[in-house]
Amino acid sequence: MERLRVFKIKTRSIQEGKALTKPRYPRKNFYGNKQDKSYLIGFRLGDLYVRKAHLNSPTIQINLNSTRSEQVELMKNLFAPFGHVGISRPDKAGATKVRAYVNCSFEFLVPKNKALDSWILKSKKNSIAFLAGYVDAEGSFGLSPRNQPFFSMKSQDKEIMKSIQARILPSVGIDTKLQFVRSAGSIMNNIRCNKDVYGIFIYNKQHLGLLLSALLPLLKHSKRRVDALKVFNRIK
Prior knowledge:
By secondary structure, the protein is α+β, with helices and mostly antiparallel strands. It is built from 9 helices and 10 strands.
């Protein structure tokens, strides 16, 4: 260091040094197509917190806290092929912390945009893949106490829900409304809502059939697939 000062050689900043640090675990570039990318963006906007430590960081950190083992397993399946995935023991509330560390080929997951990118909405395949990811994060299929099939999805992201209701669902022949569910400050699933909550609900069997035909090949969440198949068998 002293000789660097003598010869007036500028040293690297801490951030520049970190950018050159070799990761502890091997990483692979994202190799999926646009549909795979669309699915991951949908799942990210629904359930994940993604950050880059600093501008020159070689690492994208993807975070999930969940009490659902299926959600933890899905997170592991999605990102373990590309980098290290650390999974904590459940805390006192039963929540598990999952942290995935991948390289900058996943930088497309960092922004949390309220408006969907045009390249997703302009392609039916991309928009349906996005919807599958968002449904794996936020949606549910089920049977009512009277054995009536339904689809339900609730979210505080009004703009995303509006895009799904007005742009994506009509592309597969589904006409439904975006419904106000509850106001900001109310409690949903033991969590206080910071913003108003909106929902999309489908009960019509024909519309459920159209939705399932589009989504079943793309859903990756194990419970979501099981519940979707129950609904599919019921409407048949």
